[in-house]
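Work Package 4 report. The design task specified in the project plan requires that, given a folded chain encoded as structure tokens, an amino acid be chosen for each position. We show below one input record used in the internal validation round.
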């Protein structure tokens, strides 16, 4: 009997020992890590076969004077990125740059060609060229900061337009390029700072630059320091730069004075045969040219856009898409004198994909 009990106990012990021995877990085969998706490189969007007609609108009223824009929009029921085109004209002349605004509208943008108040003689903004009342009727000088205030208000207005997806890029030529860079540097992201900025032959980027005041005026051509001092409403002290309160005003009106890390990506360019003062403004030590295609003077760009941007910590980019805390810089090769929107057709094949690309945070 004792032997039977002992035998049963041994069987039970063996059973429980087997039950408590863990079964080895099968080691799973590691899942391969996914390959990061490559961001597609931008391609030029396909243009619509027929350009949309422009509509004249008022984006701002000053003392009863309508500040207007011509808007080109593909009426497809969708919201689109806005491209505001800012004309040039030495801060004192010029009208809405409709050709470029209509052009970009064919690539999925709401194209907006704006006017803005001008410094004297502001003929295009006076009655009768401008609908009554004009600048002459309301006795408006159009001096700094009125012009950049108008551009700022255009950005805010069209960012909140029901046709807009909330994104705004600016394309400025000559003096309009100076205004574009000024808002890119001084604006608040998501409000009055454009999301991207393109400047073709930025008029004057540093309004206190001694190298601009040292340039000799050429009869029949825009004189940079004359245009600047007229815009600022101060005496022209050339060949010396302004001093005292005039210097402070010139510095505060200078886009380069406000460049900073965290501003929107921008693309600055000039042609290889651009107008007097433009290489100095953009930051290149190259010759400027006269409209008859003869060299004017070898310019000094040490205080221009490119050196200043690098000095304050922005990175020069060669990417085909915008990158945060960076800028692009290009000298556009031309065979004859070309300024501002003169070379738009030559560069738009690269510019339109860049302003159409993803906007970096």
């Amino acid at each position: 009997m004792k032997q039977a009990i002992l035998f049963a106990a041994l069987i039970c012990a063996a059973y429980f020992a087997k039950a408590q021995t863990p079964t080895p877990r099968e080691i799973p085969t590691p899942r391969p890590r996914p390959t990061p998706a490559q961001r597609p490189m931008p391609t030029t969007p396909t243009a619509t076969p027929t350009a949309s007609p422009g509509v004249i609108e008022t984006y701002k009223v000053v003392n009863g004077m309508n500040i207007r824009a011509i808007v080109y929009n593909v009426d497809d029921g969708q919201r689109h990125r806005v491209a505001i085109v800012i004309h040039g004209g030495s801060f004192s002349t010029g009208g809405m740059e409709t050709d470029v605004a209509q052009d970009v509208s064919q690539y999925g943008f709401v194209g907006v060609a704006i006017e803005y108040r001008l410094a004297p003689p502001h003929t295009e903004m006076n009655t009768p060229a401008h609908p009554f009342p004009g600048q002459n009727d309301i006795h408006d000088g159009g001096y700094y900061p009125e012009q950049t205030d108008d551009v700022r208000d255009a950005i805010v207005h069209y960012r909140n337009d029901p046709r807009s997806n909330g994104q705004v890029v600016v394309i400025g030529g000559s003096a309009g390029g100076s205004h574009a860079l000024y808002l890119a540097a001084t604006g608040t992201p998501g409000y009055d700072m454009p999301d991207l900025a393109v400047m073709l032959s930025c008029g004057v980027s540093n309004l206190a630059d001694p190298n601009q005041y040292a340039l000799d005026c050429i009869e029949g051509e825009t004189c940079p320091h004359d245009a600047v001092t007229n815009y600022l409403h101060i005496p022209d002290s050339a060949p010396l730069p302004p001093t005292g309160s005039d210097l402070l005003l010139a510095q505060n009106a200078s886009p380069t004075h406000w460049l900073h890390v965290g501003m929107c990506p921008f693309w600055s360019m000039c042609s290889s045969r651009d107008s007097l003062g433009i290489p100095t403004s953009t930051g290149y030590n190259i010759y400027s040219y006269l409209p008859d295609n003869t060299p004017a003077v070898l310019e000094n760009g040490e205080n221009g856009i490119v050196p200043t941007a690098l000095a304050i910590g922005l990175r020069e980019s060669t990417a085909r898409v915008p990158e945060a805390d960076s800028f692009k810089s290009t000298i556009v090769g031309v065979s004859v004198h070309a300024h501002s929107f003169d070379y738009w057709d030559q560069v738009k094949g690269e510019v339109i994909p860049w302003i159409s690309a993803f906007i970096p945070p």
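Confidence is low (pLDDT under 50) at residues 1-41. Validation will be extended to a larger panel in the next phase.
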